[in-house]
Specification:
The chain is an all-beta fold. The chain has one domain. Strand 1 and strand 2 form a beta hairpin.
Length: about 120
């Protein structure tokens, strides 16, 4: 399986959306949505939440072999959060929730590789 970091989305700028592409393997470049690796204008939502970049890396664990690293910030406001689902070529889906309002790295571990779909919900409930 060859790796590609190119994803596309018709939901850029929307607080709820999906990007598909890949399969993206560990060690490849940053996720690119519609040709941009700076995702802050694509994956952004309510309360100032946004994602700056996404990558997938190898992880040397007993159960998990990879990790997805999301650099971003959650929305302002008590109890608000940003939710993500990452789907691999194998069908494995892992979820990540960001509640911190600081721009920082957030990780979720996965067993398989080949990122093919990114779903986000950055809408205040």
């Amino acid at each position: 399986m060859s790796s590609t970091n190119a994803f596309s989305s018709t939901n850029c700028g929307s607080s709820i959306g999906t990007a598909t592409g890949g399969p993206m393997l560990p060690g490849s470049a940053l996720v690119s949505i519609n040709g941009n690796t700076d995702l802050s204008q694509c994956i952004k939502g309510d309360g100032g939440s946004y994602v700056q970049k996404i990558s997938i890396e190898s992880y040397d664990g007993v159960v998990y072999n990879n990790k997805i690293v999301v650099t971003g910030r959650g929305p302002t406001g008590m109890g608000h959060r940003s939710d993500f689902t990452f789907t691999m070529a194998s069908g494995e889906a892992v979820t990540l929730t960001i509640a911190s309002t600081s721009l920082e790295d957030h990780t979720v571990k996965c067993r398989t590789t080949g990122l093919v779909k990114i779903d986000w919900n950055l809408k205040d409930l």
